[in-house]
Amino acid sequence: MVKKIVRDEFFLKQKSEPATKADQQVAIDLLDTLKANEAGCVGLAANMIGVRKCVIAVSMGFMNVAMFNPVILSKKGEYETEEGCLSLVGTRPCTRYEEIEVEYYDINWNKKCSTFKGWVAEIIQHEIDHCNGIII
């Protein structure tokens, strides 16, 4: 189901709780909401649709992917950039990494460990920040 985007900074700054298998509907709602906003959005975190669980949805370019409890294990190639956010007005400077290794559970609750680079890595870092209550 497509959900309304939360813009309340107080809510967005609260750290998310770990997701469980019971949160699969949250991932489906995130994927639906990402698809509905694809003209101006490449990633979402559950708190952006009002759910304080550690679930993100990311556009991989060719498909959208949900990740439960993503954790960055390693990062390389620090750089400075500016990012926007569907929940906030304007852009803000931030530090990101060109390559990251991420451990997470997929939509079928299989544990994965993958390396991401470039634009997809930047999106994942932004959404993991959301899970940690960090907004740019």
List keywords for this structure.
136 residues, 5-stranded antiparallel β-sheet, 5 strands, Peptide Deformylase, alpha+beta, 3 helices
**Could you give the order of strands across the largest sheet?**
1-2-3-4-5
Biggest beta sheet summary: 5 strands, antiparallel
Query: What's the domain count?
Result: 1
**Cα-to-Cα separation, first versus last residue:** 27 Å
Radius of gyration: 14 Å
Overall mean confidence score, pLDDT: 96
Percent strand: 35-45%
The counted number of beta strands is: 5
Low-confidence stretches: none
Please give the CATH class.
Answer: Alpha Beta
Instruction: Enter the CATH topology name.
Output: Peptide Deformylase
What is the helix fraction of residues, given as a range? 10-25%
3D shape: globular
**The CATH fourth-level homologous superfamily:** Peptide deformylase
Number of helices: 3
Structural class: alpha+beta
The CATH architecture can be given as Alpha-Beta Complex
The arrangement of helices and strands along the chain is HHEEEEEH
